[in-house]
Amino acid sequence: MRLNLFDYSQSIRVWVLLLAYTAQLSASLWIGYELRFDFAVTPEAQAERLFVLCWLVPLEVLLLAVFHQLNSLLGYFSTPDLARMFHALFLSAILAGVVWLCVGAGFAPPRGVIVMNFVFALVGLTGSRLLLRAVREMSRTRTTTAEPQQRARRVGIIGAGETGAVLAHELSLKPGLGLLPVAFFDDDKRKWHSRVHDIPVVGPPEKLLEARSKLHIEQAIIAMPSAPAKRRAEIVRLLAGAHLECRTIPSVDQLALGQVRVSQLRNVEVQDLLGREHIELDPEDIRHALQDRVVLVTGAGGSIGSELCRQLAACHPERLLLVDRAEPALFQIEQELLSLGHAGRIVALTGDILDQARMQEILGEFRPELVFHAAAHKHVPMMEHQPGEAVKNNSLGTAQLAETALKFGVGRFVLISSDKAINPTSVMGATKRLAEMYLQALQAAHPEKTKFMAVRFGNVLGSSGSVIPLFQRQIAAGGPIKVTHPDMTRYFMTIPEACLLVLQSALQGAGGEIYVLDMGKPVKIVELARQMIELSGLKPDVDIQIEFVGMRPGEKLFEEISHKAENIAPTRHPKILRLISLPPELETVRQEMKDLRSDLCGATASQVKAMLKALVPEYTPYHSPEEQTSAPIAGSRTSPQSTEPHLRVV
What we know:
Elements: H1 5-36, H2 43-66, H3 79-102, H4 111-144, E1 153-158, H5 162-173, E2 179-185, E3 195-196, E4 199-203, H6 207-215, E5 219-222, H7 229-241, E6 245-248, H8 252-256, E7 266-267, H9 283-290, E8 294-298, H10 303-314, E9 319-324, H11 327-339, E10 346-350, H12 356-366, E11 370-373, H13 380-385, H14 387-407, E12 412-418, H15 427-445, E13 451-457, E14 459-461, H16 467-476, E15 481-483, E16 489-490, E17 492-494, H17 495-508, E18 514-517, E19 523-524, H18 525-535, E20 546-548, E21 567-570, E22 576-580, H19 586-600, H20 605-615, H21 625-628
Parallel strand pairs: 1-2, 1-5, 2-4, 5-6, 8-9, 8-11, 9-10, 11-12, 12-13, 13-18, 14-17, 15-20
Antiparallel strand pairs: 3-4, 6-7, 16-19, 18-22, 21-22
């Protein structure tokens, strides 16, 4: 018979605790009697003490076991442990008092002994556990400092709440991180001039600049997850203006999901400056709904697709299919997910959504229950010069993949769309709108089968092709930052928020809907540029110039939430809106897509835009001077003079 070492070591720990608790509780009772009788215990009281010792101490030990104090680790002791220990000993004191009332002297200790025994037992057990914890932390500190370390940097923690206190405690336990907390700063006046973990709370965050030289603070850490976003942004600007290095704790989502610890700091990023409140979605519902299901993501190597894959993998699907035609990007996200321990469920598949045979092969072999379609051409100016490629990938490719999903019985099909599909002025937006319309037609014709839906994004911070990486490169080069127009505004959201929106919408959609996130107030691009310059420790228009270069082809001055004729309805989540419109006839749109495919061959950019205009009447195409001289295809069914809409939006 093999010895289970884990069970053996656990048994040893229980017996050690049992003997230690018995000795301490016996000593507490013994001292209680000595004090009660002024160290002159009578023979009768001595006999009573021995009798009480035989039943009261086992009772206390039994109650400690009931409150899980015999299977805890010796070197770990916290507030919950103290509360459980208090309840166990208090209950034993109450029972001893009941025995004294019912039976009287001789069987139960006097009232004074009961009270003193409770106090001494609680202090003794708590003290011993705290001593063991201190020994553990000291040994841990010696271990981390065994190797030579650089001098610890002195930091000020902004936020003296629970998060800040946990951060300070972890930093003090981990000198290897090289950070020494020397002061707290908090907006709560009640905390000023107090101490947290023996670290002074100096005053409000603005006080940090004054105390910086006195306390030799070299770095600030923002630990204010519950503070309003506007206030956090003000503090970031304050620190950036003072050229003080600043870091912050991980996002609320990462902390809530247990993905990171408070001490795993990150650099302050541009989203911390936007002052937009974090949108809370429900990751638990998403996890339960996606667990043990087969899920496919197209465009898995892109910025949105890869984050979708990360969040989907964390939900433990039965199989996660990563589809992308860009092999390097696909390899990168595959290796990342494998390193996170998802080897048993990840399948990386190279394939182009325009390759219908390949898509049929993948869907036929793996039979996914959900498809998240993130593959697309999305660079607005680039697609203006080659609109045929945008039509092929964004419109025709989506329609073809949706038909394949319907054929193989996919449960839900979610298109990653764009707010540029609303009254589009760009080819990218028009092709996305055409894809939305096709899905709505397919859903209306087959309501009992695959649930087709779309999710519209605003501008996603840090995604490929977004303005943030472009501005960062321009700042690194010394400027200037090139902004198209002083009044241009955009809605912004983070990549994790965008992907959580997709997952949440996918679960509640009944089919045919278009979802959009309530993203608050739009942000001026020029203000974003100024904030990024300040975040880099520089001054706008002094260290880095801002130039206005004019709007690019296909761009809007501001983005819209919905078409004027779209009906906006609420959902179960207050920050997710559902847009409903009248779908076109499926056979009509199928024929028009077929005609569009055949007419693309040899068509000029101007002619392709004319075709899109006929299919998406709200589209206002941009024509370059060269395109304006091009004539549409003779006899085309989609000439720009045709104003009668084939697909009507209500």
